[in-house]
Amino acid sequence: MTKISVRIFVLALVFIVGCSSQERTGEAWSTKTGGLSGDETGAEGATLAWTVDTSNLPPHTELRWIFGDGTIRMGGDHESHAYVDNGTYVLIVVALLGGQEITRWTLDIVITNAPPIVDLGADRDWVPEHPFQLAALITDPGRDEFTAHVEWGDGTAEDVVLHGRALEADHVYEASGTFHVTATVTDLYLSTRSRAHS
Ligand SMILES: [Ca+2]
């Protein structure tokens, strides 16, 4: 029986850096430009950290951390948070005394896209005229959606319908030989959002 050597040749990753703007409220407040320091940029999924200087605040002051992505919690002088989508967020820290706001700080946070990753596995042999099956999982720290395009290495290619983050496709090679399979994965969700804001 003749075998085809199918080589998993290139894994192409495509990611599009999108940029969206988190809505700011129209509320007027006294914004302190100093006192809140820490990460102003980071990739989606990465944990960022900040510190607020409360040395001049009265005792029993409480801090409400508003991260700009819908996450709000009471916290301390040091806090961390991971954003799961790229975009520009406004981090707000509100100082409260007896439930009343006494001051607040803001900081713009820019989160960049992280590329999707997919591992097609090792090279393998396959029997001609039988379906060669490709199966791989896409990983991405962002809350993204993806498209995939597979080039089978014999002059044919196709867009693959994904099932969540699972890339599954099969292909019949009609002749013996060595074929290089290439998969291109794009986190389309981000490019869509980018166009929406342009
Ligand atoms: Ca991504």
Quick description:
5% of the residues lie in helices and 52% in strands.
- Average pLDDT across residues? 80
The rounded Rg comes to: 24 Å
The best one-word shape is rod-shaped
First-to-last CA distance: 57 Å
Number of strands: 17
Overall tally of domains: 2
Percent in strands: over 45%
Q: Estimate the helix proportion, in percent.
A: under 10%
Q: Helices and strands: which structural class?
A: mainly beta
Ligand species: calcium ion
Give, in order, the helices and strands.
Answer: EEEEEEEEEEEEEEEEEH
Low-pLDDT runs of 5+ residues are 9-33, 190-198
The number of helical elements comes to 1
Largest sheet: 6 strands, mixed
What would you say this structure looks like, in words?
The protein has 198 residues and is mainly beta. A hairpin with a 2-residue loop joins β9 (87-97) and β10. The protein has one helix and 17 strands. The chain starts with a strand and ends with a helix. Strands 2, 4, 6, 7, 9 and 10 form a six-stranded mixed sheet that branches. It is rod-shaped, with a radius of gyration of 24 Å. The longest helix has 9 residues, at 188-196. Helix content is 5%, strand content 52%. The protein folds into two domains: 4-17 and 114-196, no CATH class; 31-112, Immunoglobulin-like (Sandwich), CATH 2.60.40.10. The structure holds calcium ion. Residues 15, 44, 113-114, 116, 140, 142, 144, 187 line the site of calcium ion.
